[in-house]
Amino acid sequence: MTWLVWRRQRGALLLAAALVVVTVALLVVARLLLESRAAGLGDSACLVDPAQDCTGWGRGRELYDSFLWPHRFLQFWLWALVPLLGLIVAAALFTRETEEGTAGFVLTQSVSRARWWTTNIATTLLPALAGALVLTLVARWALAPFETLFRQGRIEPLGFELHGTWPLASVLISFSLAAALGTWLRSSLAVVVGTVLGWLVIFAVLLYTRYDILPTSVQVVPIGEFDGTADVDGMPRDMAFRGPAGEMIGSGQVGVGCGPQENYSACLQREGVTAAEFEYQPESNFWPLQLIQSGVAIILSAALLSSSYVRARRLG
């Protein structure tokens, strides 16, 4: 039975494997190019020491600008590819029988429905998870100097999605969605569209609730030290300003009278602002958030796969 499933799904599995191999090669080349360029500019410290400020003008800025967009591209590509692996291997897993009306023939053979469903799931899900694991491990190594150069924490969006247990949870969700929809719908296109939309909805909900799952931290910066940006060890959520008595000052009321050439910090002091307050999800919450959101993904996936199993037993 396993060999039969492999023969039917080998095109999808080989496509997924090819995408993983090409992406691994891109990641390795990107890191080697970054290290080579940094060595040529004499800025190798920018890739290993987060305390180094390589965003100012000069050769450090040249390194920063040269690899900003390649870094963004690699992040978005990995973010999209991981769930795509689950969709690729599961899109036609059950849809072929439901679409072509051959489910009755397949399910009246000597193999039980439970074994037919289990073998299909295991033969395709395990390679998809293995591919996601390979991408996660290679990305952790390849993107490390990029994250140091661009001062991006693992808990920030796109950093969070590429590390830890979430890539495995992401591919599990997309796979489960495609497998479930494949047993309920009779159109491959509908399965693909439904899986993409469903995954995006689940991802968006988890992303926008990430700030509220665990208590946030607050950092107060005296206005004399405020440079207009949040330099916190985590994922910024909100920023507020406070007056002499600790009262909250609305963002729309701050800096209204500041001139274009005036020092922003000095202007805010003149307006009576005493401090800028940053609320953020600290980097120390990375693993708790990973485990919580991955746990949610596992529960959702279990429900979807259960739905697929129940439906598969009634096909034909």
Automatic annotation (TrEMBL):
Superkingdom per UniProt: Bacteria
Keywords: Membrane, Transmembrane, Transmembrane helix
Residue intervals passing through the bilayer: 12-34, 76-95, 116-143, 163-182, 189-208, 291-310
Record-given protein name: ABC-2 family transporter protein
Organism (species): Pseudonocardia autotrophica (Amycolata autotrophica)
Organism placement in taxonomy: Bacteria, Bacillati, Actinomycetota, Actinomycetes, Pseudonocardiales
